[in-house]
Design goal:
Number of helices: 21
Structural class: mainly alpha
Mean pLDDT: 87
Shape: globular
Radius of gyration: 22 Å
Number of strands: 2
Helix content: over 70%
């Protein structure tokens, strides 16, 4: 099981070797990244069908937790780690140009850091991987070499830097109170953090700091600018997955350490504000990429509302919404590869790209929750759980969510109407709205995944219910990493 560390180490090593290999042999260099990611997919996918009992803790460096570094593997971590490797392979920068080596090396670095975020079992290593992911993202966005990309990257750099400082300060406060950064050990010492203001302050600092990547209100101003200037494949990876990994860190903190009403209410309030700000901005947007960016903010706000729910059904809604958003938003960004720019130029494009128009309509139907598509079941789970809560703030969250769905339906089907309109197209349409074949094929792959999930919704729901129950069990996490019996972690 120590081979699990290879899913982090190999992409990291490949990121440094790839430029050298590219100079020695372009063919080998071009295939190095996909081979590494393919192996990571095989290694993690094989665990689903093995007889290994999850969860388990894997010691790195020979020192048992809480004194050494450990990787924690439960069904939730395995799910997201596999998604990182697979989505990295799907969103791989295959295009050949003078920056190919740099783009591919940075993508490997981003995959390594993202996998580390899914598997790490202590706050310090989570912070290190968070910074690595930020550095890789900066390089990939600025690789577009446009003035807009430079400006967006600079603003993102400033905001991300502030988030990093806040996160590090929160981690320092936690260490000053407990003397440890291991998540399992912190779960044992949680009363020391819950019974004083410094603990809640540390939580707020980390929440806002990590929230930069999670597109959390109010530190999400970078989202529309980055998604409007970065490549569609990078935007799909960031919106579809990296934001969920930041969310995973916050989930671990709430379940293991800060399981208190004040911490949960903060998440709920910020989620509500994120939904309102994101959906209204998306409704007003005139550019497809910016519209998708604002829509992503609104969707992440909905997921944060789900995160605030106290029981396993709330976590089930969170997982369903997160995976659904991963598929839908990445697929939509693939379509934006050719359809980016003014929405008015999409008028009548269904005649030139019927498959692309059909895919956009399919994604829109699921995103607004039309049955029997997976989006309906994810949203229905959230609605029933919000309605079952007695606190007034959850009722406000439910009303905001329903109103946001109406707004979302309005701007998405306004685009669908344009796609299938018989009005005359503009003179610039043929030059600017061509959808590349690779992007269309990738979007079609996500469309097939969505339809497959519609057919398999019952077993998928049962599987996610089991994942939610396991992830919600703080005692199981502690016993796995720091067992009471002699022998240490596995």
């Amino acid at each position: 099981m120590n081979n699990l560390a290879l899913t982090i180490a190999l992409p990291l090593l490949g990121a440094f070797l790839l430029p050298v290999m590219m100079r020695l042999s372009q063919a080998i260099g071009l295939w190095l990244g996909p081979i590494i990611l393919g192996y990571g997919c095989w290694l993690l996918g094989n665990l689903w069908f093995s007889d290994i009992n999850l969860p388990l803790s894997i010691v790195i460096g020979g020192f048992d937790a809480p004194y050494g570094i450990n990787l924690y593997l439960d069904s939730l971590a395995l799910l997201f780690a596999f998604a990182v490797q697979l989505l990295g392979l799907i969103c791989w920068p295959y295009a050949l140009n003078q920056d190919t080596a740099r783009r591919q090396a940075l993508m490997l670095l981003l995959v390594a850091a993202s996998t580390g975020l899914a598997l790490s079992g202590d706050l310090f290593n989570l912070y290190v991987f968070y910074e690595l992911a930020a550095v890789a993202t900066f390089g990939l966005v600025v690789a577009s070499s446009t003035s807009a990309a430079y400006a967006a990257t600079f603003r993102y750099l400033i905001l991300s830097g502030i988030g990093s400082v806040l996160t590090l300060l929160g981690i320092a406060l936690i260490y000053s109170q407990t003397g440890t950064l291991n998540l399992a050990h912190l779960a044992q010492l949680a009363p020391e953090l819950l019974n004083n203001r410094l603990g809640l302050t540390a939580y707020l600092l980390i929440l806002i700091g990590i929230g930069v990547k999670a597109e959390l209100f109010p530190v999400n101003a970078w989202v529309p600018e980055i998604y409007a200037t970065a490549s569609s494949r990078l935007s799909g990876f960031l919106a579809g997955l990296l934001s969920k990994l930041a969310l995973l860190i916050i989930l671990r903190l709430l379940v293991l350490i800060f399981d208190q009403p004040e911490a949960i209410q903060i998440v709920l309030i910020l989620g509500i504000l994120g939904v309102i700000s994101g959906e209204f901005a998306a409704w007003r947007a005139k550019d497809m990429r910016r519209m998708l960016g604002f829509s992503s903010i609104g969707q992440l706000g909905i997921i944060f509302i789900a995160l605030s729910l106290p029981d396993e059904r709330g976590l089930l809604a969170l997982l369903a919404l997160s995976l659904h958003h991963l598929v839908i938003k990445t697929g939509l960004f693939m379509l934006a590869d050719g359809w980016g720019g003014s929405l008015d130029r999409l008028t009548g494009i269904a005649k030139k790209s019927p498959v692309g128009a059909a895919l956009f309509t399919l994604f829109a139907l699921s995103l607004v929750g039309v049955p029997p598509l997976p989006g309906f079941w994810a949203k229905f789970t959230l609605i029933t759980e919000l309605a079952a809560q007695s606190e007034p703030l959850y009722l406000i969250g439910l009303l905001v969510f329903l109103f946001a769905t109406v707004i979302e339906t309005s701007y998405l089907f306004r685009i669908v109407t344009k796609l299938y309109s018989s009005a005359e197209t503009t003179t610039e349409q043929p030059e600017h709205v061509h959808l590349p074949g690779l992007s269309l094929a990738t979007a079609s792959l996500f469309g097939v995944a969505l339809l497959s999930a519609t057919v398999l919704i019952a077993p998928i729901g049962d599987g996610l219910q089991a994942v939610a129950a396991e992830a919600k069990n703080a005692e199981l996490y502690i016993q796995t990493v720091i067992p009471a019996t002699p022998g240490g972690p596995l």
